[in-house]
Amino acid sequence: MAQAASKTCEICVSGPGHNYCEQCDQRFCDGCKTSHLRTKLSKNHTFLSGSNINPGVKLYCKEHYENFIYYCMECNTPICKICVIKKHKSHDFAEIKESTEGIKAEVKMVIDKKMSNLQSKIADINQGLNRYQTDVKGVIDAIREEGRHLKELIDQKVESMIKSVKEKETKNLQILQSIENEINTTLDKAKKQQKFYQDTQGIKDTSKLIQKLKQIKSQMDQIEDMQVPIMPSVRYSKQRLAKSKIENLFDELTFG
């Protein structure tokens, strides 16, 4: 529930929350208000604005002063028994508790699916990193083995190629780590919405609960899917040549 003393946007928690959504019972900054009104589920929401907003607890139908007992599926709003007859008679509606449970289950499914997907991608990156580092070690071992065979004649060439492999490894690891960090950041966003979802368990106001759940779902839908990049690879093909052809002895390193 929004607190009258709060002056901060409850969405981005950084801007001034001088816009109050009557349907969601939350404070918004100007930017978050604009985004909220662009969302299909909340495009018809109404706002109160000002620095001295003091919203009350919305437990009853504002028009008929009756308890909310149904939820209109077409209008996306809780309704009382009089609203059903006067304004929503031909609409599809369900008991508000049943509707709330359905939305809760849907939001939980979205959260679980999104988090599972993100965690799976992080696992894919870790597996790819291990495989790539194993490949790097194998290439380095192959280069060293051939270097020992040709002894001091090719020591300089060996160390030069090893340096190239390690430099490329460092570069690729930095790139992959950066991508993993991005996915971790996205996962943190999903965890934040998961925390918001857990916090809804204590909300008694069904109207507010439904709006909170829809908002969480909307935020989860906005979390973009991160693609796991093609893992880098490295190969080295050995060959044995005469000493006079040392410069042509080594194949070029290839990186994927």
TrEMBL record:
Pfam families, A to Z: zf-B_box (PF00643)
All copies of domain B box-type, residue ranges: 4-50, 56-96
Molecular function per GO: zinc ion binding
Keywords of this entry: Metal-binding, Zinc, Zinc-finger
Gene3D superfamilies linked to this entry: Classic Zinc Finger (3.30.160.60)
Name of the featured protein: B box-type domain-containing protein
The species this protein was found in: Mytilus galloprovincialis
